[in-house]
User: Fold this.
Amino acid sequence: MNHRPITEDDLHAYVDRVLEPERQAEVAGYLGDHPDVAKRVAAFTDQRDLLRAALAPIAEEPLPPELNLSRIIENRARRPSVARWAMAAMLLLSIGGLGGWAVRGALQASPEGLVALAQEATASYNVYAPDRVRPVEVRASDSAQLVQWVSDRLHRPVKVPDLAASGYRLMGGRLVATEHGPAAMFMYDDDHGSRLVVLTRPMSSADQNAPMKSQSHGDVGGIAWADDGVGYSLVGHAAPESLRPIANEVRRQARAI
Amino acid sequence: MKDMLPQVEPLIPALRRYARALVRNRATADDLVQDCLERAVSRWQQRRDGDVRAWLFAILHNLAVDLFRKTAARGRHVTIDETSEGDFGEAAAQEHRLMYQDALNKLARLPEEQRVVLLLVAVEDLSYADAAKVLNVPIGTVMSRLSRARERLQQEIEGVTEAPENVVPIRSAK
Assistant:
């Protein structure tokens, strides 16, 4: 591996935690050897934490009614516009040509790529994570059997990510059905009982390789990415940014296979 | 329009936070966000592919810049809310509040171009590339502004009192 020199930009990217894990480690090593720079970087990190803490309460305030998006959309819908008439005309034309169901299918095309994967992971999380009776089908104690099973069904070796360093223990896993074929779901919990789900499956066509993308639906956040045709999505009851270090760890381990 | 709600609604708290950090007045900030959402609704169909978050912040940012220009032209300034709402009954919470207030006051002393980069990157988690898109500047400019912002804020925090001549401290209008 060639060691690129550490630049000022690297130091900021280190503070903002946007470096690839390998580079992050290189910068950390450099800081270990340069206490003066390390002090400056630590001060910048403190600034970042302070600003975030100072501004966080604003994002937690309840939204005033004027900022209710459904209402804003509705208000606009009452005003007919040229674009809306054009859309209505197009819709009539296509209904004439194709029939109602075809139109419905065309307008609600199923998502592809990472978007689809993230939705599947969120759905699995929402269904299985609250389950107190049987959240997983194969328990962690039978993890060898679990790995064998999902690897057979996914037609590729699947490794169960080890999240112990992040404080999460494997509970077990199961196979879940998606529109893009079977996916392996692994579930983890920590000492407080909060659960995480990692969903992985081969990507069909779109997004064979894709950088990490975060998403959130209400309180459920997630991060999805794809490497060499295999997609991963990590979902939990947390903001996506707080899941990122764990996602980095999952990715690091998967790449190490 | 159905796809808009789930993509945009979760971002509204962050938009409010950014607007409030910029103008430091609740009512003015929420007006900006409302304006931003109305524009977003009317332009949703024409938006190009790309990150919805960066797209929304760009709309909001441009509205804020327009507002700054107008208020500067009229020679008026927006009243700064000195107190933030919330339950700050306990002494510890009170102390935190003062510390946060102090941090925001120091941030406000930064030149606007540095302040916005710091907010977009360090608080709103925009990538450097997305911040460059929002501000319509090259990514190298984002990096140099970020670097200057952090150095400058550190000087403020450490109490270095060399007041550069090109910066007018922002005062409360009270």
